[in-house]
Write a structure and sequence with these properties.
- The structure is a homodimer.
- By secondary structure, the first copy, chain A, is α+β, with helices and mostly antiparallel strands.
- Chain A has a domain of 91 residues: Roll (Ubiquitin-like (UB roll)).
- In chain A, 21% of the residues lie in helices and 28% in strands.
- The longest helix of chain A has 12 residues.
Chain lengths: 150, 150
């Protein structure tokens, strides 16, 4: 599905999504069967930015490294919960983005938690190779602004 | 310093801050000597939201628990780097917020990292008691949207 088309449409997210799927056909789902919409009880608890997003922190299972921070809309969260493949919403490209779909550096999602405010998600994942587009293991590896005191 | 006054003023952040400090007097600094402004080389690397903020993830040193996610403006980051007391910017109250100043649940900052995009900080902290306003240890303790597979 062209997520841009979904974003441009109007109406409740689940109806927009269904309409876009109907219009675009199954190929737009990139081979994965994602049906339905985000659980309404979850959707009701989200506190989104004005552009409909919540923040998502990805943490490696076991080592507990903080890998990266990205954004999700309802559709990205629904796909993440139902496929266990971390799926984000790219604010710059204005479309859904399955982590690692082109690089192979996917995130298998073990657990998803919502914070007390309803505006941030914590994903516990298994990261394949580096999470960062630079090739680093995490997006926080390269730049230390304040060093530990030893 | 009434951070609201700072936000309402105009001009470069460091000049606004100095003007506000001058106007408000040392008492406004709540007893801590914070001088100067955010290092210009750091400021130049930040990619802020339209309202001038970057995202900040607080992680407990040692256990590596993700404690909470909040926001910082340049002033909050400057104070965090210079005092090692985690200081955030409250979007709802539109003012700086020294974590734990009223609750005592402070965060001593060991390390601060900036991510590859320049829009997210990772703080490695020692959290006193619970990080969450609900009393929980972390803001992610209460709500599991997707459980681990065992």
């Amino acid at each position: 599905m062209g997520a841009g088309a979904v974003r441009a449409a109007v109406g409740p997210a689940h109806l927009r999504r269904r309409a876009a799927e109907h219009a675009a056909g199954p190929a737009a789902l990139r081979g994965r069967a994602v049906t339905g919409a985000l659980d309404p009880t979850i959707a009701a608890r989200l506190k989104r930015t004005p552009d409909g997003l919540v923040c998502a922190v990805a943490q490696q299972r076991g080592t507990k490294e903080v890998l990266m921070v990205a954004w999700m809309d309802d559709e990205a969260l629904h796909r993440t919960l139902t496929t266990r493949r971390a799926t984000y919403y790219s604010r710059s490209r204005r479309q859904l983005w399955v982590k690692g779909e082109t690089s192979g550096h996917t995130q298998y999602v073990h657990e998803v938690r919502l914070d007390c405010d309803g505006d941030t998600l914590l994903l516990v994942v298994d990261q394949v190779d580096g999470a960062c587009h630079t090739g680093d293991r995490t997006c926080f590896d390269a730049s230390v602004l304040l060093a530990g005191e030893g």
